[in-house]
Amino acid sequence: MLVLLLFNDSTRAESDISYVQHSIYPQQIISQNKQRGLSSLKSKTQQSQESTENIPITVIAQEVTVRVIGDSGVGSGVIIERKGKTYTVLTCRHVIANSKSNQVQILTNDGFTQTATWNLSRQLNDIDLVQLQFTSDSNYKIAAIGETSLLKVGDTVYAVGFPNWHWKNPKTIQNTRDWGLKAYKLTTGIIGMMPENYLKRGYQIGITNNIYRGMSGGPLFNQQGQLVGINGRSKYPLLKGKAFRYQNGKLVATNVAGKMQTLSWAIPITRIRELNKK
User: Fold this and answer.
1) Which residues does the annotation mark as catalytic?
2) At 33, phi and psi to the nearest 5?
3) Which pLDDT score is estimated for 189?
4) What's the distance, CA 151 to chain centroid?
5) Dihedral angle computed from the Cα positions of residues 75, 76, 81 and 82, in that order, rounded to the nearest 10 degrees
6) Kind and range of the H or E element at 209?
7) What's 37's DSSP letter?
8) What are the two backbone dihedrals, phi and then psi, of residue 219, each rounded to the nearest 5 degrees?
9) Which end of the chain is more exposed for a tag (fewer CB within 10 A), N or C?
């Protein structure tokens, strides 16, 4: 079964907003007894996860979103766990794929950089996710984990990250690598499509939000301010409809792929369970 939402430019629920310009308050937090899966991850982080009720999503997002700076590129990530002084950051594997070493710099919301590493033997080759770890004495916020199964087409969602480029004007573009936290961006949109079967590399949540290069690995939040996905694919890929294949390698039907290319894509946070099994 394929669930999708069609819309045109006049009804498209999408806008780009900055932290200082807009405050979005989450709805009543979903009770813990209604949230399934990810229970082991939640139990490890629940002491660090304060209730998101009545806290602007813009604040929640800025506190847990990080910038991932490597020798081969720059992306985004989100803090999902803490054990003692060790923090775990989740990002897209393609963000660090071409790194010459297993180290990157993590720029946290306090403006400090932390050296993070990863162990590829504990990652999954067929899912575009990787867990990074860094050690710090600082007390950083941890993202509250949401339940992907509760999402539905039409839900409002918020995509966060650090675009690599900024258009100063129609003729001038600036590289934001040296901008630090100034490059932070939050876009709001709705879920436009949720195919029953995973797409290649684990993608399944199609959203109307704009995802710019550099925002890969950044978090996708629901209206409760909970982490429900990891952003990784922008709209209108170069290969167009041919860029969409299911996890089993089967090419998506042309008419469906045509709709998929109009959306950005995120990996459901529930896929982290497969990483934690390794």
Assistant:
1) 94, 126, 216
2) -75, -5
3) 97
4) 15
5) 80
6) none
7) S
8) -80, 155
9) N
Which class for 277: exposed (0-12), middle (13-18), buried (19 or more C-beta within 10 A)?
A: exposed
The owner of tokens 């839900």 is: 155
User: What is d(CA 160, CA 153) in angstroms, rounded to the nearest whole number?
Assistant: 19
Under the banding of pLDDT at 50, 70 and 90, the label for residue 138 is very high
pLDDT of residue 19: 32
How many DSSP H helices and E strands does the chain contain? Answer: 5, 16
Asked if residue 197 has pLDDT above 90, the reply is yes
- Amino acid identity, position 35: Q
Tokens of residue 265, six digits: 């894509």
Q: For strand 74-83 and strand 113-117, is the pairing parallel, antiparallel, or unpaired? A: unpaired
- Per DSSP, which regions of the chain are E strands? 2-4, 15-17, 65-69, 74-83, 86-91, 103-107, 113-117, 130-135, 156-161, 165-169, 172-175, 185-195, 205-207, 219-221, 227-233, 264-268
Collapsed DSSP state (helix, strand, coil) of residue 256: helix
| pLDDT higher at 141 or 123 | 141
Per-residue buried b or exposed e for 223-237, using 16+ beta carbons within 10 Å of the residue's own CB: bbbbbbbbbbbbbee
pLDDT of residue 276: 65
For the cut 90, the answer to whether the pLDDT of residue 111 exceeds it is yes
The C-alpha atoms of residue 270 and residue 37 are separated, in whole angstroms, by 7
Give the amino acid at 267: I
